[in-house]
Amino acid sequence: MKILVIGSGGREHVLCWLLGSSSLVNQIFCAPGNAGISNDGLCVDIDPMNFDKITDFCKSNNIDLVVVGPEAPLVAGIVDHLESAGIACFGPNAEAAKLEGSKIFMKELCDSHNIPTAKWGKFDNFESAKNYIELNGAPIVVKADGLAAGKGVIVATNTKEAIKAAESMFNGAFGSAGSTVLIEECLVGEEASFFAIVDGKNVLPLATAQDHKRIGEKDTGLNTGGMGAYSPAPILSESLCITVQEQIINPLIQGLAMKGIEFKGVFYAGLMITKNGPKLLEVNVRFGDPECQAVLPRLKSDLLPALLASRDGELKNISLQWREESAICVVMSSKGYPEKYTTGNVIKGLENAADNETIIFHAGTKLQGPDIVSDGGRVLGISALGSSLEIAQKRAYNTIDKIDWPQGYYRKDIGWRAINN
Ligand code: AMP
Ligand code: GLY
Q: pTM here?
């Protein structure tokens, strides 16, 4: 089969790497890809939002399946566009992708089906948002309704900060994504993610993971797209996983079905494990990045049959085998990320840095003559497996020590919650 992966991050690199190992696959393409992906497939310079160009490419290259990595094209309807042109796609259509594209849509569905989540209110003007914040006090969480590249959530420790956040959202800080604002109760607990593949009806659990969203060690500083992850997340015990499936995932999928919406693709539940049990923070409709770089190296089975079965409504026939080992992914970013940083800096030493249990996934990299240079905020993801998380962690950091990139930054404590427990 010929597969086209859409996207250019670490998530797409791990997908190309893994799908490339499938005995069913003859050729992998990636649009637009990055320097690392070009070792696993052919990168084609097409913008993930240019659906017409992607359709033309698929037709002229006889693509059998398109696997969409990031949320923006999913929310904008890439699956509807390609499927209506007769091209098979893995991922949710635009209606189902609203679970990620509109936090209000997700919260209303939770309320209709008694799904545990933070109490919330929605506001379309600053004055009423401000009143609500003053009435409820801090800590309190202010969110833009729409997609904001992971930046539209402010966990405010005082009312002044919350009011300022709401004001800047109504003033267009996130464009139309912030024209409606949610204000939520601040949940307390440990965060974890649960990943599953869904075929409209059946839910095939994949694995759990924990992300590290903050830029600084011990989870301090600004929020980022994710600075590292490990899988499994010990806090999500087997019995909690069952609770998550029964109380959160199944009712959401059924709730969508009752509205005539079929959810197909990756279901990523962002959870807060509170003392009253797991509560849903957010739903994403694609693999997490960098969680995917920790989850998928643990997969022993071929991933492709599960992706095809998701599209065809046949997931009940699929079971996946996983390695016993833990996996970790440490992200290397450009110094200064998530604020200002420079790009175009040469990264050396990549060829000999990894051992058998370590893989270097690329995100913001590109080829410049003979060199690999940085080309974004998050640049590399160093994934490692180990019989324990500590061993995996050591391997990842040993590999990082061999990478020569003075303008790079990474957190030195990825895995700390699980290792110190
Ligand atoms: P979201 O994109 O909705 O997951 O929010 C990004 C991050 O903000 C989450 O990973 C949490 O760390 C934090 N967050 C979101 N909602 C809440 C909440 N209701 N209570 C506490 N923290 C939250
Ligand atoms: N790492 C968070 C996300 O993929 O949304």
A: 0.95
